């Protein structure tokens, strides 16, 4: 019989997305979630979070600090036991990954 941990991983996932929407790329006035920099958010039953994200370019000025900021802000959520950020450039980020809202904000629509 599976133990019920009482954690709603989907609800926690939504809270994590809420936090991600407070983190901005310093060069673009749009949060990293709407920019499409977050590829995936995994939450397991132990409340461990893994975030797969990218940067606008490998030479992004915040390549060192942005993943750390994401990790720290997600870890600051009470329900999160641990968080890890993995950076990938596969697939590379393009403007196509941005939300309609972000494109509108940047005058791309």
Automatic annotation (TrEMBL):
Residues 14-86 form the MIP18 family-like domain. InterPro entries: Fe-S_Maturation_MIP18, FSCA_dom_sf, MIP18-like. Pfam families: FeS_assembly_P. PANTHER family: FE-S PROTEIN MATURATION AUXILIARY FACTOR YITW (PTHR42831). This is MIP18 family-like domain-containing protein.
């Amino acid at each position: 019989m599976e133990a019920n941990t009482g954690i709603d991983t989907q609800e926690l996932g939504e809270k994590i997305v809420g936090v991600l929407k407070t983190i901005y790329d310093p060069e673009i006035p749009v949060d990293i979630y709407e920019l499409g920099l977050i590829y995936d958010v995994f939450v397991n039953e132990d409340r461990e979070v893994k975030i797969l994200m990218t940067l606008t370019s490998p030479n992004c000025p915040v390549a060192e600090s942005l993943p750390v900021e994401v990790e720290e802000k997600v870890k600051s959520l009470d329900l999160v036991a641990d968080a890890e950020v993995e950076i990938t450039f596969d697939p590379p980020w393009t403007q196509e990954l941005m939300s309609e809202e972000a494109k509108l904000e940047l005058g791309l629509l």
